[in-house]
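Translate structure to sequence.
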């Protein structure tokens, strides 16, 4: 068992070879009927499937891991398995199931008194509530999470929570409060990549406040930095925000192709919130001069928002349809 299990961890081996080895370990653990070996094997097997973007398999084996850990009352692996299931469900945009398992993991870690893991799961839940437009509940949960951070030092999670509160304030048109939380996020984070994301959110606040010159200058500065980012979605999102802000400032319909390309790139990235935001941009872009296209994009916006149960985007899409 140990030989094939340890070999399956070797990153220089091809994926199929690693999967073959962990499958051998899985069968050996089952035959030996040793729960601790089975849990270890299920954990790695789920991980390898997730590396190959086989999230359904990753969820299946993580649930087996959770069931085994629950049966033998191993709280550490119960929390770990529940957290992994939450992440894998989030990857495939099954957000209600994802939230359920993050909450389950949080409760396990509360029983264990593990403040860092509690905050990690709180942070995931805050982000998901924010994405769903549940701002009041998200704010309440973020404040609860911040109380745990008084006992531990975790700048990355603290900054993430500040950023979530900045986004909530912006979306509720409380722009000065949004700038306050955004500044806290920027000053707290130790991650250069996250700092770029928070600065992009600052540009969004400027945009929503009608400070278009400030927003455009910041977006353009960020694009220079994001050229080296391996995550091209960050660059594409910022570029799309820049083009929409330029349209808000100039009403130049020559930006149509840029905004359409922005939608296609967000679809390719597979981020539903990003796709909905791009559909919103196009709906507003066409609103005053092409009613048929306004209806097309507003209807699509409503349908996509309904899939992830984002009430605010659903309501805005309906309002835009009434104006078309």
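Result:
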């Amino acid at each position: 068992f140990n030989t094939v299990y340890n070999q399956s961890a070797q990153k220089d081996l091809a994926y199929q070879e690693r999967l073959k080895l962990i499958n051998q370990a899985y069968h050996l653990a089952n035959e030996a009927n040793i729960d601790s070996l089975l849990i270890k094997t299920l954990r790695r097997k789920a991980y390898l499937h997730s590396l190959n973007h086989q999230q359904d398999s990753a969820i299946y084996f993580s649930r087996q891991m959770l069931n085994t850990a629950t049966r033998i009352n191993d709280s550490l692996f119960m929390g770990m398995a529940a957290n992994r299931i939450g992440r894998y469900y989030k990857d495939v945009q099954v957000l209600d199931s994802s939230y359920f398992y993050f909450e389950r993991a949080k409760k396990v870690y509360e029983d264990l008194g593990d403040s860092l893991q509690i905050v990690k799961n709180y942070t995931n839940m805050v982000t998901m509530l924010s994405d769903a437009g549940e701002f009041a509940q998200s704010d309440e949960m973020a404040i609860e999470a911040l109380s745990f951070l008084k006992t531990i030092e975790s700048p990355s999670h603290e900054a993430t929570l500040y950023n979530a509160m900045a986004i909530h304030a912006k979306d509720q048109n409380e722009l000065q409060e949004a700038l306050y939380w955004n500044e806290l996020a920027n000053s707290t984070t130790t991650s250069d990549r996250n700092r770029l994301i928070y600065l992009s959110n600052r540009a969004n606040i400027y945009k929503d406040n009608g400070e278009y010159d400030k927003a455009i200058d910041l977006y353009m500065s960020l694009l220079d930095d994001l050229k080296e980012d391996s995550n091209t979605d960050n660059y594409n999102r910022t570029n799309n925000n820049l083009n929409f802000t330029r349209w808000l400032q100039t009403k130049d319909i020559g930006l149509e192709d840029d905004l359409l390309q922005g939608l296609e790139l967000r679809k390719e990235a597979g981020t539903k919130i990003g796709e909905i935001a791009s559909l919103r941009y196009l709906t507003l872009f066409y609103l005053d001069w092409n009613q048929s296209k306004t209806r097309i994009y507003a209807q699509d916006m409503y349908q996509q928002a309904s899939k992830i149960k984002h009430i605010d985007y659903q309501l805005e899409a309906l309002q835009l349809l009434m104006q078309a």
